[in-house]
Records
---
Amino acid sequence: MLLDGWGWVAWGVYFFAMPAGALAVRRATLRSWPALSRPVTYRTLGRAVLAAVVAAALVLALFAVLSLAGWIEVEGHSVSLRVLLMGVLGPQLLVASWEELAFRGALQPIAIHRLSQKAGLTVASALFGLFHLPNILYHEVPAALVPQTVAALILMGAVFGLAALRNGGYLAVPIALHFGWNSACFGLEEAFSYQFVGPQWLIGTPAWFPESGLLGAAILAGLAGVAWWLTKPHMQPVQAEVHTA
């Protein structure tokens, strides 16, 4: 999507090469696969649904507050259930699954295995933020907002990484948090035509809302509390995943 006429190549790399490559590197390094094979229980499903709902609610609440404050002017709206399902929810479920599989399912445990728990979480989160930099530039986020947008995405990576770490590497909650957040962001973009009239450094830009504003980073910090509450510490270290079978 970054090169005209080569979008199919970009999507092929994104949806196939990236997760497949990450899994191959994990398998070669840790001799194990991500923790995806646990049976789905009502408790697991309930936590995942709650994670997605709360993440989406935080984004929508921020948008509503900024609208009431007069910092967002909604110029029109057009909500189509078909568009929301096919153009937002479906694609964002794939995006959340693939990115969590690559970053929290592979890169983070590899980094923790090679370094330490804190250093591995930091490295994986930083790579997650930097991974989005080309897309941030492609969407023409104002140069002054690029550093704080990347920083917010690094924080987002840390939130999702913490959720995976505290849940023994199981990716249900990180995927749900990621899916809920992205679905709300892209759902607003599809449903409304709006412009920002408030302080840009605080509320960000429509090109990358809400991570491009400091208030977006603030609600990500709130999302960290949700992730902490929804997960529990795993008693065994990540290195215990390594086996020779």
Note: The CA atoms of residues 68 and 106 lie 42 Å apart.
---
Amino acid sequence: MERVRTKRKFTIAALVILLGAFILPAARAGEVIDRIVATVNGRIILQSDWDEALCYEALLNGRSLADFTDDDRRTVLDRLIDQELLQAQMKSARFLPASEPEAAAHVTEARKLYPEAATDQGWQFLLANYHLTEKDLLAHVREQIDVLRLVDAHLRPGVQIDAKTIEAYYRDSFVPQLKQSGAGEVPLADVSTKIRELLTEQRVSELLVSWLHTLRSESDVRFPAAGGSSDGGEQRR
């Protein structure tokens, strides 16, 4: 999240496709509007899943749904696909899943960033503007916490940042930035821990991109073609 900080900045690789009809308005009684927008190893992602993910990202970033471009929407679909791939990895991973109270605590903290959500009525009105319920929001936050923990459990143990790497970053990046900003000198010893954390995060992000690329290459990801195609009306990616 940028505006809503319920987690570490989500560096998880890209996720979402063309949105033909913008967030589905409430269907008329008895009318069901939905379609398959992608399949991941046979698991279906529906238009309604995509629409909800768009609403969630719009809320987190304080953006209007109307501001989302086609590229933005494709990115959201890509993230949904990546989440599906990572969730499949959770079955064999060892980490503590987020509890509902834990997710609720994150939502409570995030809500403080929205002045219009100071009252319960204002909060519900804000969620309604994004076609979301508090239950929807809790589910998304819980999923994101679980994905972050999976990534940490799978990738972080293999990341080692040695003293020479920290010193090189301090010399080549940190000190020049200090001079450019006009700030006074800061000893390496005072910032080495933060530099290590920063470099670890960067390395985990790089490894995550590589991991997702591998998962995609080993998976069957399909998108129903708009007008049909020679391979049975589906496009693979």
Note: The first strand starts at residue 36 and ends at 40.
---
Amino acid sequence: MTPKLGVGDLVLGKVIEIQANGALLGFPGGEVGFLHASEVVEEGRGAGEKGLAVGQELLVKVIGFDRLERPTLSLRRVTDQDREAIAYHREAIEFRSALIARSAAPPVEEPGERIEWRLEAWLKATEAALGRLKRRRGARVSQEIELD
């Protein structure tokens, strides 16, 4: 079951039916929302004239709820920033999946040759050097205080 939708939420839905005044969109979990024609296109054109087709996936924004607590949706109010955020989120999920798959795969190269392990060793060496520098600076500061 999908989490409860709220006003302003972005949702990816699939067109399940086109009507004269809009379209019904289905969401994972079986929930259905209504996309009114005025939230799809310019005045005087219907949802079917915009090019919506049954089975098409749309990114829509929840703008309210009807009397039966079903979400009312808007395609027109989805901003370019919203689209970019969703695209970034999808890329992050794909990247995470690729990293998980890569880490699960057996290493092809020698352990010292994998870039991840070399970076990890470099980070450890850098942290150790930074710790030594901080200790030396602390020792110098304490010596200056004792001399004063």
Note: Helices lie at 80-104, 115-147.
---
Amino acid sequence: MNVPADLKYTKDHEWVKVDGDTAIIGVTDFAQSELGDIVYVEVETEGETLDQEEVFGSIEAVKTVSDLFMPVGGEVTAFNEELESNPEVVNSDPYGEGWMIKVKLSDASEVDGLLSADEYKDLIG
């Protein structure tokens, strides 16, 4: 499993990359491999301010639908529109082209409470 060391992670298998006061969020390589072939990503929260742990969207694979949870609180400022026509990019490049949303952080200290790459590797075994 690919677990980049420069990202933070959640127990719900989202990753976070912080760039200034913006967090870029997606699902981990582990999550996409567990889900299987992703056929649809739905995010209808663009422009909304959500708290940490709130649902920001859902991801649909051939066999299941899973909610996507905010790893940090803030305003959803962008959705990766590429995923509307190409959801399978989450399978092929979960940490790059498969990013899902960008969030303007409400409280940057929430990032400190997320899992490091090593802690996430321990979680997924």
Note: The chain has a mean pLDDT of 97.
